[in-house]
Specification:
It is a single chain. It contains 16 helices and 11 strands. The chain is of the alpha/beta class. The strands form 3 sheets. The protein has a 5-stranded parallel beta sheet with strand order 2-1-7-8-9. α1 runs parallel beside α12, α2 runs parallel beside α16 and α8 crosses α13. The chain is globular, with a radius of gyration of 21 Å.
Length: about 375
């Protein structure tokens, strides 16, 4: 098995004469790329672009607003994955604008790391309504489906904001300027859904693709694969994470997801509606749907409802149109201590990753694809 230095030597030996843009979809990949300094170690003609790999960043603003409104009710315990607590929404100034602010105002908001904790909280508080605000891609949505499939207490409901990863990539490829020449596909999503999820990239768009793990070695192996495919003009799909990603993915997880969830058109914050990109609870589980249980009516009259905060360029960062430090707020108004946009909140957000890897100065040069 080759180490990172050996993969870098192989990549540097490739006859790359013109720029090649490679998109990585996963926030975990971006974290490895940035923290390991891989961009600086690659030849100048290879550009690695962070893509739509952060579910917190694309969670609809109206869902966050709805979660806050529920949390402020005295008889409700609102639980969510930790990253969601600090994501701001465009609420009235007199009201909390994040779940963290709602908690400071007296709401019972609890951060959890796994759905198993949600069940424990519901069982320990039978006199309260427990709402699980579940935002995430396939990797985190699968355990939510399993939680519901096993049966839940009557006082537990789910405010689901699950998204599928591949439709966002398909949307980019369908645009006039896709912005990338090759794709590094996410390892954990592929472990659930199977590497076949990405065959459309090669079949329909003639673009090289490879599934990668989360070590520098696995990522560089995938990068070498797509670069070689590109140079040879023989696009394919290679699984460079075969020890974790089997053909067909996880059949048990996929079966449970199909039983519990349906696929719908869904809104992505700052981007808009992407067809067949969201999860919703199937009819048999409507009793656990917080939207139905509490008859949620999101106030569409709010200023900037559904949008990123004013001045925030997180949507273009998510779509790979600009780099994080090309946002005008980066490092000035927006920092991890005082985030304006969701990409500076989440550990999988490109802005937060770049900041934590030491990139603190904004870059005013706008990319060609901005």
């Amino acid at each position: 098995m080759k180490n990172a230095a050996q993969w870098l030597d192989r990549i540097r030996a490739l006859p790359i004469e013109k720029p090649i843009r490679v998109m990585n979809v996963c926030g975990g990949h971006e974290r490895t790329i940035s923290h390991a300094g891989l961009r600086g170690a690659l030849p100048e003609n290879i550009e690695i672009i962070p893509g739509p790999g952060c579910p917190v960043c694309v969670c609809p603003e109206e869902d966050i607003y709805a979660a806050i409104e529920l949390a402020m009710k005295p008889d409700i315990i609102l639980v969510a994955f930790g990253d969601m607590l600090r994501v701001p929404c465009n609420g009235p100034k007199a009201r909390p604008r994040s779940l963290e602010q709602a908690k400071a105002a007296g709401a019972d908001v609890r951060a959890i790391a796994s759905p198993a904790q949600v069940l424990k909280i519901a069982n320990e508080n039978p006199q309260k309504e427990v709402v699980f605000f579940a935002a995430g891609f396939e990797t985190t949505t699968a355990p939510v489906a399993a939680l519901l499939a096993q049966g839940t207490p009557k006082n537990l409901s789910v405010l689901l904001s699950g998204r599928l990863t591949w439709p966002a990539v398909a949307m980019l490829l369908q645009s006039e300027t896709a912005g990338f020449d090759a794709l590094i596909a996410p390892g954990h999503v592929s472990a659930i859904m199977g590497p076949e999820e990405w065959e459309f990239v090669v079949r329909d768009y003639n673009i090289p693709a490879a599934v990668a793990g989360f070590t520098p070695e696995s990522l560089l192996a995938a990068l070498y694969s797509v670069l070689q495919q590109y140079l040879c003009k023989r696009p394919g799909l290679e699984n460079c994470y075969a020890g974790v990603v089997p053909a067909g993915g996880n059949p048990t997880a996929r079966k449970v997801m199909a039983e519990v969830l349906g696929v719908i058109d869904a809104n992505w914050r700052g981007i808009g509606i992407i067809p067949n990109s969201g999860y919703a609870l199937n009819h048999a589980y409507v009793h656990a749907d917080a939207r139905k249980r509490f008859a949620l009516d999101v106030d569409q009259a709010r200023k900037h409802a559904g949008e990123m905060p004013p001045g925030c360029d997180c949507a273009r960062v998510v779509l790979g149109k600009i780099y994080p430090n090309q946002c005008i707020l980066y490092g000035k108004a927006c920092t991890p201590r005082k985030p304006i946009g969701p990409c500076m909140v989440s550990d999988e957000g490109a802005c937060r990753i770049w900041w934590s890897s030491g990139i603190r100065e904004p870059d005013r040069k706008i990319s060609e694809n901005a």
